[in-house]
Amino acid sequence: MSGSERRVPCVGGLVFDARGRLLLIRRGHDPGRGLWSLPGGRVEPGEDDAAALVREMAEETGLVVVPGRLVGTVVRGGYVIADYLCDAVGGELTAGDDADEARFVDAAEFAALEKVDLLAETLAEWAVLPRAFP
Predict the structure, then answer these.
(1) Catalytic choice (44, 101, 121, 125)
(2) What is the full per-residue pLDDT of the chain (134 aa) written as tens digits?
(3) Is 47 part of the annotated catalytic residue set?
(4) Is residue 62 a contact partner of residue 94, using CB atoms and an 8 Å limit?
């Protein structure tokens, strides 16, 4: 792969609350400015995926997380994103870094949001959509 074709390694975190709602952020910068997405970002030089997840989740959501299993990997443009289940173990939910907003959403809220391309389809394929409530 040439330098111009090199993909940037990134991570994303799937955090569910006790009610089965999924944590999303509204992106404050491109790519995807104004759209809802999983929190995450680039893996910095010298970091492994777990360290990048802990850092990115704290920066974007204010939450302290423990990374779990790899759910799946996607390629979006010049980025290759490894998405992991995470448990929130501390912190206070607040939007930060490049997130304009951060919140937990149920299935109905998720369906109504303007999301980054292929988020809903990918999460459905991986069977990790937020739960619905009566």
Answers:
(1) 101
(2) 444 468 999 999 999 999 999 999 999 888 789 999 999 999 999 999 999 999 999 999 999 999 999 999 999 889 999 999 999 999 999 998 788 999 999 999 999 999 999 999 999 999 999 998 76
(3) no
(4) yes
DSSP 31-97: SSTTSEE-SEEEPPTT--HHHHHHHHHHHHHSEEEEEEEEEEEEEETTEEEEEEEEEEEEE-----T
**104 three-state secondary structure:** strand
Tokens (6 digits) for 66: 């423990």
The helix/strand/coil state of 28 is: coil
Contact 107, 35 (CB under 8 A): no
